[in-house]
Amino acid sequence: MSAIQDIPLRTITGGQTNLGAYSGQVLLVVNVASKCGLTPQYEGLEKLHEQFRDQGFSVLGFPANDFLGQEPGTDEEIAQFCASTFDVQFPMFSKIAVTGDDKHPLYRELTSAAPHAEGEPEKQRERLQGFGIATNDEPEILWNFEKFLVSKDGEVVGRFAPNLDPGDERLSAAVERELAR
Fold this sequence. Notes:
The chain has five helices and six strands; from the N terminus they run E-E-E-H-E-H-H-H-E-E-H. It starts with 8 loop residues before the first strand and ends with a helix. Strand 3 (26-32), helix 1 and strand 4 (57-63) form a beta-alpha-beta unit. It has helices spanning 41-52, 75-86, 105-113, 121-130, 169-180; strands at residues 9-10, 16-17, 26-32, 57-63, 147-150, 156-160. It is of the alpha+beta class.
């Protein structure tokens, strides 16, 4: 197992686990939020999860309240929102910090392993700054819905900007590439 697979995690229902429980699967780790302009990406993430699930792929959702309080709910409220609004079936985890001093160890490892995002992070950064929102510089997480691709053996093999739609061919091609290995 890789070091990233050993990091303790808590599921949204309070169970203890780690990424090692998903060993042998390709994973897309995403920091999510319920009250963000990008929240509709839940629908695309669920479609991606359904499309590749039977081939050994999972989307893993990590709620975070790091960006303008866009994930204020409790784990129970978040789970209810995801189920009732987007029929999310992919695994969800307890709310964590993905940036700053309280950054979860998982996100320390993810950002260290993949310091630069593919897609168009500068467009997202400019858009946020246009609204007067201060943004983080890489390798920090830019915003909600940043995506990390993790290989079957637990290595971080890709990072995608928040504004890269889950249906984008660059993302599905990366998933397919990893599933074929």
